[in-house]
Amino acid sequence: MHTSPRITVEVPVLSVGSGPPDYEELGSYVDALRRPQGLHLTLLHIGVLEDFAQDIATWTRGITAAGEAARMAAAWLEGLPTLDAFSARAERLVLLGGGRVSGLEVEVPHHVQEYQVSLVKALHELLDEMLVDNVDDFILSSPALGFRYPRWTPHVAVGRPKTRDRGPWAIRPLALEFGASRIRNRQHLPALGAGQDVRTRASGPRQVEGT
């Protein structure tokens, strides 16, 4: 069992609908409805940093050591630009994680889609710098990254499905407000050395470049 936290780039959910009753209404569709204070939308999943770094060391046959991979990944994450707060909506619930989790399927603005694509592009560039060959294969194979599908589906996990049906389920349309992007468990990243460069964080969904 992992004791190290998973690292993700995400945006927090600030509000669902017009108030708490709108969110609590989802309890008629799912069990163990999650607390609204912890809801978020994941833009990029890195996973446990030590595992991600070890995946790289194994893939490169030690050409890039796990310690160096972890330091490079931490510097890269710290240098990512910030996506500003935005509004979105959801009109249905879908199954996630092989059917074990119910989530709101979120219709995000186009610039949010572009920002997420830029994160994946930047991840490619980072892996190139780490001397990872066949980057697409690595991304789909890395247990730490956990990529199951090549296409990103914006969603907010809210609880366990009540039935064994596969869905999706139409719900009353909900307005969603999201905060600015952040690195989940950022405090657990390795401290950067004095010689490592971190770019100035910028607002907006700009194209991200690897370090």
Features:
single chain, 211 residues, alpha+beta, Cyclic Phosphodiesterase, Chain: A, eight-stranded antiparallel β-sheet, 5 helices, 27% helix, 28% strand, elongated, disordered C terminus
What is this entry, summarized?
27% of the residues lie in helices and 28% in strands.
Break the fold down into its secondary structure elements and pairings.
Blueprint: E1 6-16, H1 20-24, E2 30-31, E3 40-48, H2 49-59, H3 66-78, E4 86-96, E5 101-107, H4 110-129, H5 135-141, E6 155-161, E7 169-178, E8 182-184
**Based on helices, strands and strand pairing, what is the structural class?**
alpha+beta
User: How many strands?
Assistant: 8
Provide the helix percentage.
25-40%
- Looking at how many chains there are and whether they match, the oligomeric state comes to single chain
Order of helices and strands: EHEEHHEEHHEEE
CATH domain class: Alpha Beta
Tell me what the structure shows.
The protein has 211 residues and is α+β, with helices and mostly antiparallel strands. The protein has a single domain, classed as Cyclic Phosphodiesterase, Chain: A (Alpha-Beta Complex), CATH 3.90.1140. 27% of the residues lie in helices and 28% in strands. It contains 5 helices and 8 strands, in the order βαββααββααβββ. The protein has helices at residues 20-24, 49-59, 66-78, 110-129, 135-141; strands at residues 6-16, 30-31, 40-48, 86-96, 101-107, 155-161, 169-178, 182-184. Strands 1, 2, 3, 4, 5, 6, 7 and 8 form an 8-stranded antiparallel β-sheet that branches. Helix 2 (49-59) crosses helix 3 (66-78). It is elongated.
